[in-house]
Amino acid sequence: MQPAGRELEAMNINSLLNQEQSLQEMHNHQNGQPQMSSHFDPVSSHDDFLEQMMSSIPSSNSSFNWDVSSVAGRADHAPPSSLLSQFDDQSAQLVSKLRQHQISSGATKALMLQQQLLLSRRLAGNGLQSPTGASGGESGLLQMPISLNNNGEHTDVVDGSLQSANPANDTSMQSLFNGFTGSLGQTANQSQHFHHPQNFGATAAPSMNQQAASGSTGGGTPAQPRQRVRARRGQATDPHSIAERLRRERIAERMKALQELVPNANKTDKASMLDEIIDYVKFLQLQVKVLSMSRLGGAAAVAPLVADMSSEGRSSNGIQTASSSDNNETMTVTEHQVAKLMEEDMGTAMQYLQGKGLCLMPISLATAISTATCRSRNPIATSTNPLLSGEAGGPSSPSMSVLTVQSAAIGGNGVVDASVKDATSV
Amino acid sequence: MKARTGYSTSLKQEFLKKWIKGIRIYSNFKKDMNILERKKAIKLSADLAIASTRNASTRWSRTLTANISKNETNKIFVEQIFSDSEVIKKEAPSRLMARSNRIASKKIWRRSHITQIKARKMGPYAVKARSIAKKLVKNRTKVLKSLVPGGENMDGISLIKETLDYIVSLRVQVDVMRRLASAAENSTRLGLSSKCSVHWLQGIFTVLDHWCAMVH
After folding, report:
1. Mind giving me the DSSP string for B4-52?
2. Do A257 and B1 touch (CB under 8 A)?
């Protein structure tokens, strides 16, 4: 579940980092491979390894990811020293692998690694030795991480940075930028910029070897902007994976917005977030129904409201079992009766109920009784329960929350039918 | 995100006005309703009002209005309320279908390809775990689709966007209704309105007048 869990996080950062780690490991495996002519083939074969690596990400990276993500959140702050040491190791590894990889194959991969190196160098605080070409590039790169968050605006910003970063006299630097644009464009506009990486990759290939030397002289640096660089896979093969990635990003983005809205949404898992959302929507809908009943109707009779709700619930869910629907029927009839009686005179309504062995009580009291006595059995046989028991394996918490909803909404003035099973518990 | 507090206040006022307007029309339309009908009237007006605040820009609002208008008796009511006729646009179904077909074919390809690779590389357990997770998500998405009006044939992204908007509107609705309800109750306690069960509308309007006086 690890890959799935990571993937579903709202942070693109993490998934990016995973890919980087996997990329490094992949390089180890691919040292002996002959150089491929087109850069599509190596990437497609890399995909398999990438998948494999992604699945077997070492757990030690998880802490690394978290640290980096928190650092990435505040790009201004210098990363703590412990992180730096980590980063140093990582980037040193990265450099060596970059060299190997450049020698072997995959211009695009090399591109990405170089970009990572450069970016990481910049974000180390610019205090480390770096080739002069890189420093020119850093100012341009400055704009890139910021722009990465806004889909669709990449091209403008990056193109602007490309112009401004021309003092980078190395052709390799320019090709790096181009490659970076290409990869950015991948994430932003798949179709439009799909051609760019091809071109830039081709031009970058010859200049890569030059860069290798300069790249190796750079010291260790944090990997912070590495997370922005992505779409190594997407660059190459199919629009499918790019589209898929784009879609996932969008979903993650929206999920994040929802997280702020829905209470109790500290879950990072997509499935549990969806669960919370569903519960919340149901809760709100229920509140609307309850509110349209309470107090405005005068004798705040919840029963017909609840009967309506359960019937609606039945029609919409359609999961109700036969037995529970039978219960619903009898409850509905009773409730309608009670509502009618309540219209005229509360006294007769109460008598009617007592004749049936039911009683009316404030919801708060009902809640208290239920929690006190019958927690084990499906607690208060309020008519909300049929609605809830329709849920496939709904835990007891929704039923409790519904009750509290009612009590909150009606504020203690409302009433609920409580079928008393135990005469003693009344 | 947007400044939600300022944004909601105007939204709340708009909703309140429309809702009360709906209730008035309904009560003029049909005097002497019993408790169930009253509840239905209130809820109906509330739903219509909150849907109309979106001006048919979101899928759920359009669906909600359409569902309400399906009922013949409601239709007249709806038309009366919105004398400035709301154009209920629906997306061209052809576009929707084409899009979903494209997506479906993509998904099929992707699924066959990637599960092959993963089954080979990842080992059976991880694949199974992932598929279980996906199934969970799928089921829950289905439930969510049934909850949000008009969510049936929407893809994941727009579904979440609609849900977001829907939740915001629901919250506004609940907030306003709750305040009105508590105000009505307070007014009853203070004896401002007569016996509620019969002259409930009078009670509401009294409260409203007080409230508007306070607000403005």
Report:
1. HHHHHHHHHHHHHHHHHHHHHHHHHHS-S--HHHHHHHHHHHHHHHHHH
2. yes
Token pair 């039911």 in the structure block, residue: A358
Alpha carbons A341 and A356: distance in angstroms, whole number: 14
Q: Identify whether the C-beta of residue A101 lies closer than 8 Å to the C-beta of residue A93.
A: no
CB within 8 Å: B164 and A257: yes
SS3 A126: coil
Separation in Å, CA of A110 to nearest CA in chain B: 24
Assess A244–B contact: CB distance below 8 Å, yes or no. yes
The pTM of the full predicted model, rounded to 2 decimals, is 0.44
* Mean pLDDT lowest among A46-50, A279-283, A354-358, A407-411: A407-411
pLDDT digits (tens, 9 = 90+) for B124-171: 788 888 889 889 888 888 888 888 888 787 777 888 888 888 888 888
Work out the average pLDDT over A170-193.
Answer: 47
Q: Is A299 on the interface with B (CB under 8 A)?
A: yes
> What average pLDDT score do residues A410-422 get?
43
At residue B1, the 3 state secondary structure works out as: coil
Mean pLDDT score of chain A, rounded to an integer? Answer: 54
Kindly list the residues from chain B whose CB atom is less than 8 angstroms away from the CB atom of residue A338: none
The CA-CA-CA angle for residues A284, A287, A293, to 5°, reads: 150
- Interchain pair A261, B167: CB under 8 A: yes
Q: Who contacts A289 (Cβ-Cβ below 8 Å, separation ≥6)?
A: A305, A308, A309, B43
Partner B contacted by A262 (CB < 8 A): yes
Instruction: Please count the CA atoms within 13 angstroms of the CA of A28 that sit on its side-chain side.
Output: 8
Facing residue for A261 by CB, picked from B137, B164, B173: B164
> Nearest C-alpha of chain A: how many angstroms from B39?
5
The string of DSSP letters for A20-47 reads HHHHHHHHHHTTTPPPPSSSHHHHHHHH
Which residues are within 8 A (CB) of B18 and not within 5 positions of it... i.e. 6 or more apart?
A: B45, B48, B49, B52, B53, B81
CB pairs under 8 A between A and B: 155
Coil, strand, or helix at residue A35?
Answer: coil
pLDDT of amino acid B146: 86
Is A308–B144 a contact, with Cβ atoms under 8 angstroms apart? Answer: no
Q: How far apart are CA A6 and CA A106, in angstroms?
A: 27
Mean pLDDT along residues B172-177: 86
Nearest chain A alpha carbon to B137: A271
Return the DSSP state at A359.
E
